[in-house]
Write a structure and sequence with these properties.
Elements lengths: L1 E9 L3 H15 L1 E5 L2 E4 L9 E10 L3 H14 L15 E7 L14 H4 L1 H10 L4 E2 L4 E2 H6 L7 E4 L6
Antiparallel strand pairs: 1-4, 1-5, 2-4, 3-4, 3-8, 6-7
InterPro entries: Hppk, Hppk_sf
Enzyme class: transferase
Pfam family, one: HPPK
Length: 162
């Protein structure tokens, strides 16, 4: 099994949709850890606040299969197939890390969000602070320590029932 980290986000009925995402991820593999759910303002556009979290998931799927399965889940729960970046969304599922794979093309791994956004980095610190991010020689904690904490994150209580 490959250990992967999936970023989960929603700003349309976010409590309901992050629960749906967790339920769906349980169908794809073994959910081993789930971070705190954080509320964050959208980045790059004006809209409702997001609920964001990260899930550690062990899977037997190839990277391309996992990407297609995550996309199908997004569409199943109301995301438009041609949805643009920087807009409201029911569900956003992003592969942040997939084992030790480094990829420069779709999907880019490690995902840039791990270096740019508090909503991806802080949940990763919770889940695996000593994880060395492939191709960086830095741990998640080191990335967080060097990060500009300009984005405000507020923990929210969401009963994820699992």
């Amino acid at each position: 099994m490959i250990t992967t980290y999936i970023g989960v986000g929603s700003n349309i009925s976010p409590e309901k949709n992050v629960k749906r995402a967790i339920d769906e991820l349980h169908q794809l593999g073994e959910v081993t850890k789930v971070s705190t759910v954080y509320e964050a303002e959208p980045v790059g556009f004006s809209g409702h606040n997001f609920f964001n979290l990260v899930v550690e998931l062990k899977v037997n799927h190839s990277l391309s299969e996992l990407g297609a399965l995550l996309r199908a889940i997004e569409i199943k729960w109301g995301r438009e197939p041609d949805a643009k970046k920087n807009q409201d969304r029911t569900l956003d599922l992003d592969i942040l890390l997939y084992g030790d794979i480094v990829s420069a093309s779709d999907p880019t791994l490690p995902r840039e969000d791990l270096f740019k956004f508090a909503f991806a980095i802080l949940p990763m610190v919770e889940l695996n602070p000593d994880l060395i991010v492939p191709n960086t020689e830095k741990t998640i904690s080191q990335i967080w320590a060097g990060f500009s904490h300009s984005q405000s994150l507020k923990p929210v209580l969401v009963n994820l029932n699992f």
